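User: Is it possible to get a 3D structure for a protein together with its bound compound? The compound here is iron/sulfur cluster. I've pasted both below.
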Amino acid sequence: MSTPTVEASVPAAAEEHRSFTVTLIIRRFDPEVDDEPRWQDFDVQMYPTDRILDALHQIKWDQDGSLTFRRSCAHGICGSDAMRINGRNRLACKTLIKDLDISKPIYVEAIKGLPLEKDLIVDMEPFFASYRDVQPFLIANSQPGAGKERVQTIADRERFDDTTKCILCAACTSSCPVFWTDGQYFGPAAIVNAHRFIFDSRDEASSVRLDILNDKEGVWRCRTTFNCSEACPRGIQVTKAIAEVKQAIVRGKV
Amino acid sequence: MNSTPQSETDEVKIVDGIHYHQFDVVIVGAGGAGMRAAIEAGPQAKTAVITKLYPTRSHTGAAQGGMAAALANVEDDNWEWHTFDTVKGGDYLVDQDAAEILAKEAIDAVIDLENMGLPFNRTPEGKIDQRRFGGHTRDHGKAPVRRACYAADRTGHMILQTLFQNCVKLGINFFNEYYVLDLAMTEVDGVKQPSGVVAYELATGTLHVFQAKSIIFATGGFGKIFKTTSNAHTLTGDGVGIIWRKGLPLEDMEFYQFHPTGLAGLGILLTEGARGEGAILRNASGERFMERYAPTIKDLAPRDIVARCMVQEVLDGRGAGPNKDYVYLDCTHLGAEVLETKLPDITEFARTYLGVDPVVEPVPVFPTAHYAMGGIPTNVQAEVLRDNDTVVPGLYAAGECACVSVHGSNRLGTNSLLDINVFGKRAGNAAAAYAKTADFVPLPADPTKEVRELVDMLRNSTGTERLSTIRKELQEEMDRGAQVFRTDESLGNVLKTIHDLRVRYTNIAIQDKGQRYNTDLLEAIELGFLLDLAEVLVFAARNRKESRGGHMRDDYPDRDDEKYMKHTMAYLSGDPHSPDPEDHITLDWKPVVVTNYQPMERKY
Ligand SMILES: Cc1cc2nc3c(=O)[nH]c(=O)nc-3n(C[C@H](O)[C@H](O)[C@H](O)COP(=O)(O)OP(=O)(O)OC[C@H]3O[C@@H](n4cnc5c(N)ncnc54)[C@H](O)[C@@H]3O)c2cc1C
Ligand code: SF4
Ligand code: FES
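Assistant: Yes, that's possible. Here is the predicted structure of the complex:
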């Protein structure tokens, strides 16, 4: 057992209290004024351990109150603030300044493929519509005894663990080139949420969901570009989940 | 699928640009409490859920450690022990009839969730696994017991997802990103009765009136009155603030919980489940200091006690770090396997946000504002109280915004996820039953008047104050004077600051003057609620001259059952803008319900 001392472990945060100026170039769009989005830069004082969300807050709170974005939890758990940061989809609250190249300006814009509403906000309704379409809920007609849980082995529970982590942030779906050109495609997030039930030993409707995803806008649209897996802030192996659903369709069973 | 506002059951009338809807049951809030209520009410009555966030963004999703229920799946346990622990954990300010309901109905609440699909961690026999948590004990304090049902350290995420999934299944009507800003009350036979709610639609700036027979508030907590907090930016206490402004009472507002293990400097939570799995708190010299304060259950003492001990260590110069202002949570002996499988998220939080790897280094931690024990007073049917015993017909509250009171002066870990399920369900059923027998109360003549005035005032203001400055000053002052240790002087200073800030608030200007997605405007409105609630909290705290649970007075260090074994009831009774809170806040008391357990000294 370790017995830490002060010397042994100064946290990284304490070592890095030097702040510096960072430039953010943000793609703005005010639907009441602008015909087209426009880029605007802002300088902010940041610490290396600050997050992009802190930078956005600093702009909104100290410079321009009209900058508009969604956020809530501020630690990567609610899925509100997926955006494109230097061309990659990430959560603003999980992207630390020190992990970006700050010798250059940082580009921030809304995620792609969903209708742009204002600044960094897109209309999420089409995204949630695809989610609802895969029947993302347990379907099981057999009842466990009254007042009893369904039994599930540790291995069976493990089988779908990865896809239970999804926070519906849309980083994956809005990084998918297929989705950009074909908004009808279910998209990775909906497939992830179907996977979560298809591989749950308690569920009795996998075949229904496999049918839905065998549709022309279903899994076969996926071209395995892996953008989604790279974008997922929860570390879900999205492409693998899609591949497992494809295999299950081919085999006709889970 | 019809969980969009355009469902055919919603007939909207538009008068002067204002949209009027009618539902039997309207639920405000789509966190755990709101959606659990919707699952009951939805199938029985025409129901709408109005929420300022997409349901899955609600802060229930941040809950980590677990949900208590004496399932006895892994060791001997029963609901009576759970009741006792809840009462003792709450330092005897718990209403014991309510605690008994909580502990008894816990078992069904967990089973309900499992049956709805929640992926709990499992035992080798395939049953729901259980872990230890602070203050939960075997046989009235003999030793820690494994009572918390969990899904890794994402229990809240799984609850929120599972409830949302079941709402989708039932086709519940959601109005997402609608901010409820007022409760419409109409005078009937000389008494004001709730008739609906007024909401502001974020996307368009349109006002909506939802007339309803039953209204459930499930708007969550208000941790953003503090600077260091585990709470989301959106936890601004709107629902509690609305009730307050209507002249209805708030209960036990002085009792606010500070969770021991927030990431130092950030406040992001590391679940107590870590200590449940064996993690240890250490001071700068590596000493396991909780052994000195709570020899029997040590690091698993209730939160109020652990938080105070940590602050005491720092005050006594035994804090760690360059400024000696935090202590360590040592998980290194748990091993990578336990951390990665049972505590994966918090392991990642420490790595991402502090650059500290819990597998090999201890994590700097310090108490963080976490949970409101007080709130909107209700009875065990979740009916809102107008005074100590009269209910407001058709009005309900559940979850963190409510005070039943099952948490008394200090909530035990895992009892809130339980609370939102047990009392969310009760609220949903009671609201639906009431809607079946009651008629609509007519709306007042101009239901949106106050909201219009508020919005216009903020939009048109030419003031010079920035909302972010006022909010920051409020939060810093609350951390300084109303946190883990309080004195008459510190609280008096906070009250003065709050008064100044309230005056300055009348002079704030927002920069976004637009109609669409005007989050600048809404942050300003939220700040108004924060200021109101902070004032009530501090005023009530100053009045309670004893130390009990989450409320610790340096100048009155002991619990005083003779004078203070009773709930505080605070009423807005004058011009809210008068400088002295004495002029507009009236405090009263409400007896504690005692059934089986007489107050004892609280030793662990
Ligand atoms: C980090 C963290 C970890 C926790 N871990 C645990 C744990 O392990 N075990 C445990 O038992 N408890 C835990 N808790 C406590 C518990 O999670 C919360 O108390 C509980 O989830 C609150 O649920 P709720 O439904 O009352 O509110 P929330 O989930 O906060 O939901 C509030 C809802 O109200 C809506 N709302 C708010 N204002 C308005 C408005 N003006 N108009 C419309 N809608 C509005 C929001 O959109 C949201 O949908 C934890 C808390 C935190 C912060
Ligand atoms: S799979 Fe990952 S990226 Fe996609 S919505 Fe879920 S959490 Fe976000
Ligand atoms: S704000 Fe919640 S995920 Fe970033």
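Residues 27 and 109 of chain A are 5 Å apart (CA to CA). Chain A touches chain B through 77 residues (CB under 8 Å).
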